[in-house]
Amino acid sequence: MTEPEWPPLWVRASLDLAVLGCLLDGPLHGYGIAQRLEARGFGRLKGGSLYPALSRLEDAGHVVTTWEQGEHGPGRKDYSITDGGREYLDEGLAAWQRLTRALDPTKEHRS
Predict the structure, then answer these.
(1) Of 14, 16, 38, 79, which residue is most buried, by most CB within 10 angstroms?
(2) DSSP letter (8 states) at residue 4
(3) Cβ neighbours of residue 49 under 8 Å, at least 6 residues apart?
């Protein structure tokens, strides 16, 4: 199992934004998102973390799903980011940057 680069609390707090970031290049299924997150340093996520995040994002209108029928096996649900999801990601990343500046005592604390 791949360990995350950051404390678990940070991974949980940033998971929704990280998932949206994974979808900027196009639709992915849950396993594809998990692989991309692992490659980005989030460690190997369990379904109990990823799928509730995807459900929250879908309920909020930040992602939409489509069902893709499998050629040689079961189908799968693909996730795509919406325009609202892109806006939410942009706003969330800006907020994380402000938080980072606020946490760094060597930086000026402006919004």
Answers:
(1) 79
(2) P
(3) 12, 15
